[in-house]
């Protein structure tokens, strides 16, 4: 695991909703940048929390560099890496529509097909909401960045588990649809209208009335025209999808599954882990976030109220102190129970992994006292993860950057 960041070109963070995937993605990216790497953290999470985690107001479909001064102000300066330059961190939020448009521009066989697709009302209204479009465009953007940029590491933050599974299957789903018998029938049906094409349907009053009773004639024609035009790009999409699937199985890609100690979250995470193994995807680790810990024994808890009263100075209302001590003991007892539950679930999770023959680590991340929403907090979070994974922690003192020749 000491080579996780050094040897991986892409880390894909997956898991159920609400377990801290976005925070984990941002923290890993911050850590890698502090180690001197050029890093991009890309989110496809519709909640758009990544920007706030990095201290930004918003992210867009273009890479935005995080101001190095934020690292300096947080006391976690960027270090010099293998390139001989200081690390750099970029953030990006996937824009499905813009990515989809770019794909059409790239694969349309001619200007006429490109125009038909981009101006088609069905495409204009539904390109960002088509089933699987978000997941497929995320893979398209990942492919584009890996092939055309020079990042040392890309950290991909994904939607909740159900969508993350769609992420793995998106290439197959789109390829299956465009090559399906249904799509072929629709395309052949449009061509069967002869030289009149779709215009034949538009002028046929009887057919139009029948369509209007069910789906709306205009919508049907728009969908049919979209499928007919889009089908002409099938070969390009199929080739691209095959390449994306190869990337997801590449040894320089690592999947990190994030969970909490909640039973449902653990079950979802284990299920996703099984899907990764079944698909031949490289699983690197499972991070169990927000684990509650206690440093008190059962005996400490039982006498906590009396101990607090014994060490309290004899001032103020004695009855008020007794109430405070009782509340403190009750709160400590509740926390102690929750910590035991978390420890039990971690133990059960390790047993499940052992039964599956999985040797990748399960890393518990303690519940932090404060919300994590800035560079400094992200760096501290990442240090906990890095220490557990044996990745090492960057020095806190800045390293001098060598001056390039001629400057």
Identify the notable features of this structure and list them briefly.
11% strand; 407 residues; alpha/beta; Rossmann fold
Short summary:
The chain is α/β, with parallel strands linked by helices. The chain has helices at residues 4-7, 21-34, 50-53, 68-73, 96-107, 111-119, 121-126, 133-148, 161-178, 181-192, 199-203, 205-214, 217-231, 234-248, 263-279, 298-302, 304-311, 318-355, 375-389, and strands spanning 10-14, 38-43, 64-65, 88-93, 153-157, 253-259, 283-291, 362-366.
Question: Can you put this structure into words, describing what you see?
Answer:
With 407 residues, the protein is of the alpha/beta class. Among the domains are: 4-171 and 248-259 and 368-389, Rossmann fold (3-Layer(aba) Sandwich), CATH 3.40.50; 298-345. The chain is 56% helix and 11% strand. The chain has helices spanning 4-7, 21-34, 50-53, 68-73, 96-107, 111-119, 121-126, 133-148, 161-178, 181-192, 199-203, 205-214, 217-231, 234-248, 263-279, 298-302, 304-311, 318-355, 375-389, and strands at 10-14, 38-43, 64-65, 88-93, 153-157, 253-259, 283-291, 362-366. Strands 3-4-2-5-1-6-7-8 form an 8-stranded mixed beta sheet, sandwiched between helices. β6, α15 (263-279) and β7 form a beta-alpha-beta unit. α10 crosses α13. The longest helix is centred in the C-terminal third of the chain and has 38 residues, at 318-355. The radius of gyration is 27 Å and the shape is elongated. Residues 193-217 and 397-407 have low confidence and may be disordered.
């Amino acid at each position: 695991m000491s080579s996780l960041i050094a040897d991986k070109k892409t880390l894909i963070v997956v898991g159920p909703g609400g377990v801290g995937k976005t925070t984990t993605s941002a923290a890993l990216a911050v850590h890698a940048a502090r180690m001197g790497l050029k890093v991009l953290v890309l989110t496809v999470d519709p909640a758009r929390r990544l920007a706030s985690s990095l201290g930004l107001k918003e992210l867009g479909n273009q890479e935005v560099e995080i101001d190095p001064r934020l690292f300096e102000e947080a006391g976690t300066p960027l270090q010099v890496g293998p390139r001989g330059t200081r690390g750099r961190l970029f953030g990006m939020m996937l824009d499905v529509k813009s990515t989809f448009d770019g794909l059409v521009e790239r694969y349309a066989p001619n200007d006429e097909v490109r125009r038909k697709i981009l101006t088609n009302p069905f495409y204009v209204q539904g390109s960002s909401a088509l089933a699987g479009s978000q997941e497929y465009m995320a893979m398209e953007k990942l492919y584009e960045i890996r092939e055309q940029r020079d990042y040392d590491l890309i950290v991909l933050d994904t939607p909740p588990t159900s969508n993350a599974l769609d992420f793995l299957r998106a290439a197959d789903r789109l390829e299956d649809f465009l090559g399906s018998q249904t799509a072929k029938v629709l395309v052949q049906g449009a061509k069967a209208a002869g030289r009149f094409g779709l215009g034949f349907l538009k002028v046929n009053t009887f057919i139009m009335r029948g369509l209007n009773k069910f789906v709306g004639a205009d919508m049907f024609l728009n969908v049919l025209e979209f499928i007919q035009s889009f089908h002409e790009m099938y070969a390009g999409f199929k080739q691209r999808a095959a390449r994306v699937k190869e990337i997801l199985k590449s040894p320089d890609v690592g999947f990190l599954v994030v969970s909490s100690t909640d039973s449902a979250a653990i079950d979802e995470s284990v299920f996703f882990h099984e899907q990764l193994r079944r698909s031949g995807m490289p699983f690197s680790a499972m991070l169990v976030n927000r684990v509650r810990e206690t440093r008190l024994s059962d005996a400490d808890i039982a006498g906590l109220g009396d101990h607090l009263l014994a060490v309290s100075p004899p001032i103020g209302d004695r009855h008020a102190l007794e109430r405070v001590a009782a509340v403190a003991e009750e709160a400590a007892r509740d926390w102690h129970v929750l910590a035991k539950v978390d420890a039990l679930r971690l133990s059960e999770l390790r047993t499940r992994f052992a039964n599956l023959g999985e040797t990748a680590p399960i890393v518990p991340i303690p519940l932090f006292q404060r919300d994590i929403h800035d560079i400094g907090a992200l760096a501290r979070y990442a240090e906990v993860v890095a220490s557990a994974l044996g990745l090492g922690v960057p020095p806190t003192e800045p390293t001098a950057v060598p001056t390039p020749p001629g400057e």
